[in-house]
Specification:
about 140 residues; alpha+beta; Arc Repressor Mutant, subunit A; two-stranded antiparallel ribbon; 6 helices; globular
């Protein structure tokens, strides 16, 4: 037996998706890729993909490091988040600070999505808030 947090499993056990589940998981990846930084809220994802196993498949993708659930934004693909990290690193190489308005211009996001994403960037220490601006965080150094 193997104990992983609150889960117990048999040694050697691994999840194997059925063909239909693997197809659905690929459709979920495509939906996330298409959403970009705007992400997909769980409710919208379930509306687009009403299959009952969507939440479990998203958790498998999250455990595999493919997606992340960003509070206030929804599910976002990891490659998209890695891309914004690189863009922010490039920004700070040229500029000393980043305002929410500049972040909106940089990403093309609305304020409704940009602010929660900035808060997530602060939490991940990619940026750090100082008054009304963001400065480079410890994770960028």
């Amino acid at each position: 037996m193997v104990l992983e947090g609150p889960l117990v499993r048999l040694t050697g056990f691994s999840v194997r998706l059925s063909e239909s589940q693997a197809t659905l998981q690929e459709q979920l990846r495509t939906s996330l890729h298409d959403a970009g930084l705007s992400g997909i809220a769980p409710k919208a994802l379930h509306k687009k993909h009403p299959e009952p196993e969507v939440t479990a498949l998203m958790r498998l993708l999250e455990k595999g490091g493919t997606v992340l659930q960003v509070p206030g934004v929804g599910w976002v693909g990891r490659e998209v988040l890695d891309g914004i990290r690189a863009r922010i690193r490039d920004w700070f190489a040229e500029e000393g600070q980043l305002t929410p308005g500049q972040f909106k211009d940089l990403t093309g996001l609305s304020r409704k999505t940009a602010i929660p994403l900035l808060e997530w960037l602060d939490k991940e220490r990619i940026t750090r808030r100082s008054g009304d601006v963001r400065l480079p965080g410890a994770a960028l150094r």
